[in-house]
Amino acid sequence: MTTQIINGTVLMPSGKWLENASVLIEDSKIKSINSGSEVVADKVIDARGGYVMPGGIDLHVHGGGGADFMEATREAFVTAAEAHRRHGTTSILPTMASSTVESMHRAAKVCDELMADPRTGILGLHFEGPYFAPKMAGGQIPENIHLPDPAEYHEFVEKYPSIKRWDASPELPGALEFASYMSSKGVIAGLAHTAATAKEVEDGYNAGFSLATHFFNAMTTSHKVGPYKHEGTVEGVLLIDDFDVEVIADGIHVPAPMLKLLHKIKGTDHVCLVTDAQACSASNTDKAFDPRVVIYNGVCMLADHSAIAGSCATMDRLIRTYVQEAGVPLSDVARMASETPARVMGIFDRKGSLAPGKDADMMIMDKDLNLTHVVMMGEEVDLTAGA
């Protein structure tokens, strides 16, 4: 089966746009990208001059379509992944917030099974916690938070190949050993929910922490202690050129000027767009999965409004916000949505850019950045399903 996207403005691996171009897909792979739109395929998708970009890769997402990964069921995983697919996310790293050990085991078993099929789009599992600084817990469930436990995390990583990322606070006792172990096993160690100083960030980076989770959120920045100024976690991460960051670019978690500043300092190669989406995202529901959480001002928030507890965003919204509100070029934003997370995950050989031989994962947006088509593994996604 061959499919051809015609009349497209295609983002090439160079970061340049190829106008009036076509993408030829054979089965699940990109076969060729050419100027002109002579039809040579069984099925045709007319981009009508729209932007043809790699499919989004979301490295931090808790749910969608009314389902939450904390349910730890196959149905919940599939429902959420499919819901985000209809908004441009073709590859997803399901995220478990700080959970019980029992829930973590159930989720890992489900994820092991689903990631064996590339057509699910599931890349593995992300544990956001439970090794966090209690005072920086934010929307995490406080009863589940505790210090790094080597016996616990060794068992999980050795038992479940689906575990690809695990977050912790680097200043905690045992956190550096945790990061070193994760790094040795090829698992991304994320820095999160932390009040680490610049020195503690540096020590964490040297031990194996490599990705800052929902940057600017649930971490300290420049602040006063008595009469003196002190740097925070944010400054510590910014001072390390190769420290990757992920950012919730919904314009609410992080306002547009800060999104623009982050791009200016870190550059396209070290910023990943993530939704941090909850079950209410990509759905018609206005209720959160967590009973402590309410939907307010376009985000999930603890009922007492003491902390934001996740987003209602989708990948297409992140792209529009970064371009239209922060003024960053679409070519850069598209790469932060796909290429950079693919590199962070170590899957850039098959995903993250449009090139012959790579998986045919892509999205098409019109000139106003409205999503018009999604293709995943060579198959067009029905954007109206579940509506």
Describe this structure in words.
The protein has 387 residues and is α/β, with parallel strands linked by helices. It folds into two domains: 2-53 and 355-380, Roll (Urease, subunit C, domain 1), CATH 2.30.40.10; 56-345, TIM Barrel (Alpha-Beta Barrel), CATH 3.20.20. It has ten helices and 23 strands. It has helices at 74-85, 101-115, 150-159, 175-184, 198-207, 233-238, 256-266, 315-324, 330-337, 339-345; strands at residues 2-11, 17-26, 29-35, 43-46, 51-54, 56-61, 63-64, 67-68, 89-97, 125-131, 163-168, 188-191, 209-212, 223-225, 228-230, 244-247, 271-273, 293-296, 299-302, 308-311, 362-365, 371-376, 379-380. The model has no long low-confidence stretch (mean pLDDT 94).
Helix content: 25-40%
Structural class: alpha/beta
Largest sheet: 8 strands, mixed
The number of domains is 2
CA-atom Rg in angstroms: 20 Å
Number of helices: 10
Task: Tell me the name of the CATH class of the largest domain.
Answer: Alpha Beta
Mean pLDDT: 94
Stretches where pLDDT is under 50 for at least 5 consecutive residues are none
Distance between the termini: 28 Å
CATH architecture annotation name of the largest domain: Alpha-Beta Barrel
Extended strand count = 23
What is the CATH topology descriptor of the largest domain? TIM Barrel
